[in-house]
Design goal:
The complex is a heterodimer of chains A (297) and B (160). Helices cover 36% and strands 24% of the residues of chain A. Chain A is α+β, with helices and mostly antiparallel strands. Chain A folds into 3 domains: 51 residues, Uridine Diphospho-n-acetylenolpyruvylglucosamine Reductase, domain 2 (2-Layer Sandwich); 116 residues, 2-Layer Sandwich (Uridine Diphospho-n-acetylenolpyruvylglucosamine Reductase, domain 3), CATH 3.30.465; 115 residues, Enolase-like, domain 1 (2-Layer Sandwich), CATH 3.30.390.50. Chain B has 160 residues and is an alpha+beta fold. Chain B contains 5 helices and 5 strands; from the N terminus they run ββαβββαααα. Chain A: It holds the Pfam family FAD_binding_5.
Chain lengths: 297, 160
């Protein structure tokens, strides 16, 4: 079959889409922004009978806040996340990650649900969702289930989602005034690049000090899935995050990652850069925290 | 085969094609608008950039079945040889084009960007906005200069 002969179904509502997922016997693929899916179709990697075009399902496009939880619809584009005042205030790490996705064209097309569903180990929004402790909601015609971002990915391109399920919501707790976050990416060039290593950091700080009460660190592109650096996280609360302490924490990072050598970089380079990126990230984050507090510690 | 109705440069067009045909191919083959170019076909180079509902997208990755009812502006809809857009005029004046293959994409990206802001952009802002458009001949100095010039003339015009 030629790529251009693949037919397309465009459901208008979530229910219609779920019904198609459940009952469609022919092979199909989900299509959201198309920035990955269409490339795979052109490369001949995907030879399916139907595209299930999600673009017309307006009920999957939203950014809302309910009590202390933020909900993002999977069809929300990276541009919409970047320009959302709500997310700028409450999920800076995710906004920064979306800014690092491709360039303007990719940010306008690509969706957060697509980035999750593609499950690339180098997906930029995924470490940010790990750092935020996000919950991903999967819906099928028979019901819903919630999976934490950390349990969602099982390997490159593989997730726990069944073929009859789609992502319907991404939720996380609102960040407080003392929660700070940062996303760092190393790519071959600034724009339009795939991560060699990326890291998302989210810290809860103690007011007026450089002490951290707890935090999450997630590395991307250095393993089969995005990885949480739990040893580094445990060290965050050992004492004031001074430059020495930051350097100590970062020196452990290479133990946490298990990169491969590929077309973009070698494993040993990635290991070194994971440490460097974490050190730089923590340093910048603490500097920003101190500057905002405007108090000498 | 499906019939898809959408707007190109303000005119409604109706094409009958496979829904998996790319928007770029539809524009070039069915609508006869050969300004947008195919280069990498993977959304890395930006040669195929068109504006969809005001936002620049890579038309080589948009499928025809997804554009029903959408408003697409190509480089042909930005200006004509007799009546050029400030961005196009600035590209001419600054000599920001060599082989010309990336130019339509750059013009669309620059136009969309200048439409979205109301201030005089700095060099870094322009670089960020045009990050998805690659040029392999001229280097970017003249292109960036041209967009700055266009932004300046646009602001001057607005203040008149």
């Amino acid at each position: 079959m030629y790529a251009s002969e693949i037919d397309m179904l465009s459901p208008r509502s979530l229910l219609e889409c779920l019904y198609l997922l459940e009952n469609e016997k022919a092979s199909f693929r989900l299509l959201a922004g198309g920035t990955d899916a269409v490339v795979r179709m052109k490369e001949g990697k995907w030879q399916h009978d139907y595209w299930l075009n999600l673009k017309n399902i307006d009920e999957l496009k939203f950014i809302t806040i309910e009590k202390d939880e933020i909900h993002i619809g999977p069809l929300t584009t990276h541009s919409e996340i970047i320009s959302s005042p709500l997310l700028q205030d409450h999920a800076d790490v995710l906004v920064q990650a979306c800014r690092e996705v491709g360039a303007a064209q990719m940010q306008n097309m690509g969706t957060i649900g697509g980035n999750i569903g593609t499950a690339s180990p180098a997906g930029d929004t995924i470490p940010a969702l790990f750092a935020l402790g996000a919950i991903i909601e999967l819906t099928s015609i028979t019901g819903k289930r919630q999976v934490s971002a950390e349990d969602f990915f099982v390997g490159p391109g593989k997730t726990v989602a069944f073929p009859n399920e789609i992502i319907t919501k991404i939720s996380f707790k609102v960040r407080g005034k003392h929660d700070i976050g940062l996303f760092q990416k190393l790519g071959p060039r600034k724009a339009q690049s795939i991560s060699i290593v990326n890291v998302a950091i989210s810290l809860s700080m103690k007011e007026g000090t450089k002490e951290c009460l707890g935090g999450r660190i997630a590395f991307g592109s250095v393993g089969p899935t995005v990885l949480r650096a739990k040893k580094c996280e445990a060290m965050l609360t050992l004492g004031e995050l001074s430059p020495d302490m930051i350097s100590n924490i970062s020196s452990v990072a290479w133990k946490e990652v298990m990169p491969i050598s590929d077309i973009r970089a070698s494993a040993s380079y990635r290991r070194d850069m994971a440490s460097a990126l974490l050190e730089r990230g923590l340093y910048r984050l603490i500097k920003r925290w101190a500057d905002n507090e405007r108090k000498p510690f | 085969m499906k019939t898809i109705d959408f707007f190109v440069n303000g005119t409604e067009v109706s094409v009958t094609c496979s829904p998996s045909k790319t928007l770029l191919d539809v524009l070039r083959e069915d609508a006869g608008l050969t300004g947008s170019k195919e280069c990498c076909g993977k959304g890395e180079c930006g040669s195929c950039t068109v504006s969809m509902n005001g936002l620049p997208v890579c038309s080589c990755l948009v499928l025809a079945g997804q554009v029903h009812g959408e408003n697409v502006i190509t480089v042909e809809g930005i200006g004509t040889p007799e009546n050029m857009d400030p961005v196009q005029q600035a590209f001419m004046d600054e000599g920001a084009t060599q082989c010309g293959y990336c130019t339509p994409g750059l013009i669309v990206s620059a136009r969309s960007y200048l439409n979205s802001i109301g201030h005089l952009p700095g060099l870094d802002e322009i670089k960020q906005a045009l990050g998805g458009n690659l040029c392999r001949c001229t280097g970017y100095t003249k292109i960036l200069k041209a967009v700055q010039t266009a932004a300046q003339s646009q602001l001057t015009f607005r203040d008149l």
